[in-house]
Amino acid sequence: MNTGHPTITIDLVLDRLQTKEVLRAILHSILFHRLFGTVKPMTFEVLDVTMPGVDEDEIKHLVEEKVDAFWKAVEGDANKRGQISVTFSEKRPRKSWFLMGEEEIPWEQWIINAEIRQPSERERQKFNTDLASTLTKSLQTMLTHASSERGRSAVPLITNASSISPFPIKMSVKVGGVEVA
């Protein structure tokens, strides 16, 4: 499926006890690398991996809302798998004879696939080591993409720099193939 815009996928296998903390850190890190306004930084320490975040009430509320929606939906799902997507768009004049106004055209999408497990106490140390490695690789993916030619060229011309993000951000949560938030 060619969407015309970059889609970056991050696959996570999470310990039930750390699901919210890890998802919060991943979402904040993506936003930290893709917001173009003045960002007040913060950090998240997850399994000895330091991840950047955005200390902005609106962003914190959005992330918390989506992480909570994911958690509630996945708790009731037998498979314990779900997805959070973050889509960055630009507003363009609608090109139609009948409809006036603007439409949102995506220029980049991040997809976080998450599977929740409950490792035994015996398995927990290896599980956490593997998860820390995955988080480090995810952060590398974010940095590499945001600084690559493809990542930079995906960003449209910034014409309005009055807020933390000159582009609309949409986060959606899917569990069992159904959008829940």
What would you say this structure looks like, in words?
The chain has 181 residues and is α+β, with helices and mostly antiparallel strands. 38% of the residues lie in helices and 33% in strands. It is built from four helices and seven strands. The strands form two sheets. A five-stranded mixed beta sheet has the order 1-5-4-6-7, with helices on one face. A two-stranded antiparallel sheet has the order 2-3. β4 and β5 form a beta hairpin. α1 runs antiparallel to α2 and α1 packs parallel to α3.
Shape: globular
In terms of DSSP E residues, the strand content is 25-35%
Strand tally: 7
Mean pLDDT: 89
Strands of the widest sheet, in order across it, are: 1-5-4-6-7
Detail the poorly predicted runs.
none
Main sheet overview: 5 strands, mixed
Distance between the termini: 23 Å
Overall structural class, as computed from helix and strand content, comes to alpha+beta
Helical fraction equals: 25-40%
Q: If helices are DSSP runs of H or I spanning 4 or more residues, what is the number of helices? A: 4
Q: Tell me the series of helices and strands, N- to C-terminal.
A: EHEEHEEHHEE
Radius of gyration: 17 Å
Features:
181 residues; globular; alpha+beta; 4 helices; 5-stranded mixed beta sheet; single chain; 33% strand
Task: List strands and helices in order, with pairings.
Layout: E1 7-15, H1 19-34, E2 41-46, E3 49-54, H2 57-75, E4 81-93, E5 102-117, H3 121-147, H4 149-154, E6 169-175, E7 178-179
Parallel strand pairs: 1-5
Antiparallel strand pairs: 2-3, 4-5, 4-6, 6-7
